[in-house]
Design a protein that fits this description.
Blueprint lengths: L1 H15 L34 H20 L1 H12 L3 H29 L1 H20 L4 H29 L2 H30 L12 H14 L13 H20 L6 H24 L7 H4 L2 H30 L5 H6 L2 H21 L1 H22 L6 H28 L6 H40 L3 H6 L2 H9 L1 H10 L4 H37 L3 H20 L1
Helix pairs in contact: 2-5, 2-6, 2-7, 2-8, 3-4, 3-7, 4-5, 4-6, 4-9, 4-17, 5-6, 5-8, 6-7, 6-17, 7-14, 7-16, 9-10, 12-15, 12-16, 12-17, 12-21, 14-15, 14-16, 15-16, 15-21, 16-17, 17-19, 17-21, 19-20, 20-21
Length: 566
């Protein structure tokens, strides 16, 4: 039934002038359970047997990666106290998981395409267990950083493979709906990470946040092993391992450079890493142009639908991570929320991401990816404008929830077309490449937006503190030594430490620090707004409208069929 049904559907669709999405042809191992070819339906759907259970297994695998990515940030103060760690070390703990994931995802995705996506999926879930245990019981900060990188590598195996398998097993509107659920629930689970971590830290030690995914990993492994079909539309081409190594160096150096750049006195290191990233990128491009079987098909990546969707997704997902990064600090530093309360405050984002996903899938089918992307950008913009204009000391919770609701709605709407356009514009043999790019949207987007917004937050805060000191009465200025001023300008936490050292001035110092933090976060939100407007302009001018989008997808499909037949 499987391959014959898929081929019948394809011939029917081509006869009507529409192309099936790449990946509509599933293997004999994945029996097609449903093929919709009814009157009034423009595009057929194919899906595997027990499709709901298969999708559940893939979403649970993605959930393991998403939760492990999100839980560390809330625990950083406790980790710093436990190990007397420097801020740089804590930054590496926070970025280590993303570093391992972003650096490896392209190479591991290609290995999955060649040697087995199900195998790569199971290996990734299995490796996450020792990585979590090592992180939870790390005897030193160095071991913890290593464990986080190892966890990122495990996610690099499993997470992008989930999207690659969805692309290979589903087609048509069924694929769009599946990607929508995958995107929304993945983002929602990631957003729930701070809430879960905050609750655990009220009762347990810092390592408990790394143990929360262990039961989920076991369930995900069993379901994936029993339900996910093997050897689905895999490639027989050899893997470009040299290109894989270059991609690891390129992405790792880039992510580290972005995160090191805001650190004081680390400009030379950041510049060196940036040079390494550029050199590796140049070598990677040359290698991909010359390789017989490139790791990253630059010809496919140059397709307008692909690269515009990739850039749009980086900004969309980056805006979510940036809003959570700055917002969590605002809620705890300025509004005085506990870690649990701060985690709970982002629930509106989670709820609206989940609610928006089904509507997003319908909008993609009815109005096209361009309209849906732009709709998401509008709500992201409204969220950041709310933060910029209304987030101040003493604001009510509904304004916090409103901003997060706008951002969640925007990401819920835009996330589906961003991922769908990537996977829909490539041949199914490049599903790993597309899913790896979709994953990089989140990792690189988060790293870039968090680093830029963090740098501006720091700079704006320091500038506001310096201005406040300069405007203070001469008698107060005389009491502020250069070392104290440096401490006050370094961070909000440093200012609190100064307040504890000088209790007679604690209220004034804390009030000034809060005001300065709000000024700094405004700088960050302006940068976020600028990025959102840039992304919206990119989509508006370069992403094709619905009819032209379909024409381009048909042309891509014909090109891929011709290339496969040659």
């Amino acid at each position: 039934m499987g391959r014959e049904t898929g081929e019948h559907a394809a011939s029917t669709l081509l006869a009507t002038g529409y192309r099936p999405d790449p990946g509509g042809d599933v293997s004999d191992e994945a029996a097609v359970a449903d093929t919709a070819d009814t009157a009034g339906t423009e595009e057929a759907s194919t899906q595997p047997a027990r499709s709901k259970l298969v999708l559940l297994a893939l979403i649970l695998v993605a959930a393991v990666a998403n939760l492990n990515l999100a839980v560390a940030n809330v625990a950083l103060p406790d980790i710093g106290t436990a190990f007397t760690a420097s801020q740089t070390s804590l930054d590496l703990v926070a970025v280590g998981y993303s570093l391992g994931l972003a650096a490896s995802v392209l190479w591991l995705g290609a290995l999955g395409d060649r040697y087995g996506r199900k195998l790569m999926l199971l290996l990734g879930v299995a490796l996450s267990v020792p990585a979590c245990l090592l992180a939870a019981f790390a005897p030193s900060i160095g071991v913890l950083i290593a464990a986080r990188i190892l966890g990122g590598l495990s996610a690099g195996m499993a997470y992008p493979t989930t999207l690659a398998l969805i692309t290979a097993l589903w087609s048509g509107p069924a694929r769009t709906r599946s990607i929508a659920l995958w995107s929304a629930l993945g983002g929602g689970i990631s957003a729930l990470g701070p809430l879960v971590a905050g609750g655990l830290l009220l009762h347990f030690y810092w390592g408990s946040v790394f143990l929360v995914t262990l039961p989920l990993a076991v369930v995900a492994f069993v379901l994936a092993w029993r339900l996910v079909p093997a050897h689905v539309n895999e490639s027989s081409d050899p893997v470009d391992n040299l290109g894989g190594l270059l991609s690891v160096v390129m992405v790792a150096a880039l992510v580290l450079a972005i995160n090191v750049a805001p650190v004081p006195d680390e400009g030379t290191v950041a510049l060196g890493l940036a040079v390494v990233a550029l050199a590796a990128a140049a070598a990677f491009i040359v290698r991909q142009r010359r390789a017989a079987n490139p790791l990253y098909d630059l010809k496919v990546a140059s397709r307008r639908i692909f690269w515009v969707a990739a850039c749009a997704g980086i900004i969309v997902f980056g805006s979510l991570m940036g809003a959570m990064f700055v917002g969590q600090q605002f809620l705890q530093n300025v509004l005085g929320y506990s870690s649990l309360d701060a985690g709970a405050a982002i629930l509106p984002a989670v709820v609206f991401m989940v609610l928006a996903a089904p509507r997003s899938a319908k909008l993609v089918e009815a109005r096209g990816a361009r309209f849906t992307l732009l709709s998401g950008y509008v709500f992201c913009l409204l969220g950041f404008l709310t933060m910029l204009l209304f987030w101040d000391d003493g604001i009510s919770y509904w304004l916090v929830g409103l901003a997060y609701a706008f951002v969640g709605l925007g990401v819920g709407l835009a996330g589906t077309p961003a991922s769908h356009s990537l996977t829909g514009s490539v041949p199914v043999t490049r599903a790993g490449m597309a899913s790896g790019t979709a994953d990089l949207q989140r990792d690189l987007g988060g790293a870039i937006m968090q680093s830029i917004m963090g740098a501006l937050l720091t700079a704006g805060y320091a500038a506001a503190v310096a201005t406040a000191i300069a405007g203070a009465p001469a008698s107060d200025q005389a009491r502020i030594t250069d070392s104290v001023q440096t401490q006050l300008e370094r961070s909000f936490a440093s200012a609190e430490a100064v307040a504890e050292q000088h209790p007679q001035y604690a209220s004034q110092i804390t009030a000034a620090a809060k005001t300065s933090f709000v000024d700094g976060q405004d700088w960050a939100y302006v940068a976020g707004i600028a990025a959102i407007l840039l992304g919206a302009a990119l989509v508006w001018f370069l992403f094709p409208r619905r009819d032209r989008e379909r024409e381009l997808l048909e042309a891509y499909h014909r090109e891929d069929v011709a290339a496969a037949a040659a």
